[in-house]
Amino acid sequence: MDTVVKIIGIVIFSLAIVYLLKPDVMKYLMEFFTTGRRIYIVGLVRFVLAVVFLLAARECDVTWVVILFGILFLLSGLLTFVLGPERAKSIVGWFQNQPLSVLRILALVALAIGVAIIYSA
Length: 121
Description:
Strand content: under 5%
Distance between the termini: 9 Å
Helix content: over 70%
Structural class: mainly alpha
Largest sheet: none
Number of strands: 0
Shape: globular
Number of domains: 1
Order of helices and strands: HHHHH
């Protein structure tokens, strides 16, 4: 199960590199997932990630980090459903209107999260 967590960390790391190099791709993805009710797919994926992280935490090298990210995924998934599509769209719109330098800093944060997950698994 810790292998699944490592794979998720690698995917997050890879997406962060794409986000760092091509922020417009991520802006497109943000727009895609805020159209209609697609935001609920994001919430569902976050719930699935939370379950995987919390179940796999015992097998990972740095358990508390995996549990922490599991709880964060759980809270963000819940928040996605509580806020609903309209509020989520306004939050994503705020991120889309930020300068590229801010988006690249966020990509660096995602990159660090990916590395932390890979290291902890």
